[in-house]
């Protein structure tokens, strides 16, 4: 069964701590979005803000930033288990992947909805995950782009050994379709962290898949 990972996008370290506290014991992983205000218009807290936060959850850090390799040191200090960078944010993905080998975390590549799947194919043997965005990056609460379902199916055929993550716009109305299309990891933001009861929201989504 596909794994559900809650996603947090915030510019407030106190808000992050509150949400992480509420997620303790409900999930094994959490995805934290980092935006620099340049690659996307939105700006969140910095990776360095994560270093002092205590949590039992495994951290995935989604870097929606230019020059993501400059953030790898702070990702390591934050004890990230997996770091995902945007392919569109780098001039030479080979160099970024080579840099990532210096660190302990797993590495993944994220693609905007408009980025052709063929663009990630040269790197599939060097990454642990491909994250397909179901919305344009930067903001939570956007509507899922239906064509993402076909992209999941096509990527599954291209990358059988790589985890396929889908992030953006996933909710109770479409989570079953996303899972059935072949996604291994369902990254869910608003449908969990903007609900009054995180635990009930996660359980409801699990039942649907």
Structure, described:
This protein has 209 residues and is an alpha/beta fold. It has a single domain (3-208), classed as TIM Barrel, CATH 3.20.20.70. The chain contains seven helices and eight strands. The chain has helices spanning 13-23, 72-77, 93-100, 148-158, 175-181, 190-193, 198-208; strands at 3-8, 29-35, 58-64, 80-86, 106-111, 129-133, 163-167, 185-188. Strands 1-2-3-4-5-6-7-8 form an eight-stranded parallel beta barrel, surrounded by four helices. Strand 3 (58-64), helix 2 (72-77) and strand 4 form a beta-alpha-beta unit. The longest helix is centred in the first third of the chain and has 11 residues, at 13-23. The termini are close together.
In the CATH hierarchy, the third-tier topology is known as TIM Barrel
Fraction in beta strands: 15-25%
Taking all residues together, what is the mean pLDDT? 94
CATH uppermost class: Alpha Beta
Structural class label = alpha/beta
Helix content: 25-40%
Please write the string of helix (H) and strand (E) elements: EHEEHEHEEHEHEHH
- CA-to-CA gap between the ends? 8 Å
What's the main sheet like?
8 strands, parallel, barrel
In the CATH classification, which architecture applies? Alpha-Beta Barrel
Discrete helix count: 7
């Amino acid at each position: 069964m596909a794994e559900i990972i809650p996603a947090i996008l915030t510019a407030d370290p106190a808000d992050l701590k509150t949400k992480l506290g509420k997620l303790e014991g409900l999930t094994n992983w959490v995805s934290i979005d980092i935006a620099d205000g340049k690659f996307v218009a939105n700006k969140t807290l910095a990776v360095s803000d994560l270093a002092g936060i205590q949590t039992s959850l495994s951290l995935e850090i989604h870097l929606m930033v230019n020059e993501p390799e400059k953030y790898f040191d702070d990702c390591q200090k934050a004890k990230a288990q997996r770091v995902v960078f945007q392919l569109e944010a780098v001039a030479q993905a080979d160099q970024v992947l080579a840099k990532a080998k210096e660190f302990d975390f797993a590495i993944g590549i994220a693609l905007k909805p408009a980025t052709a799947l063929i663009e990630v194919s040269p790197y599939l043997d060097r990454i642990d995950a491909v994250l397909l965005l179901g919305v344009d990056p930067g903001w939570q609460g956007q509507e899922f782009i239906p064509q993402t379902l076909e992209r999941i199916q096509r990527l599954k055929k291209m990358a059988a050994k790589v985890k396929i993550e889908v992030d953006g716009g996933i909710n109770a109305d479409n989570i079953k379709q996303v899972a059935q299309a072949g996604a291994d990891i369902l990254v869910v933001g608003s449908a969990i962290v903007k609900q009054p009861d995180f635990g009930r929201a996660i359980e409801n989504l699990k039942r649907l898949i």
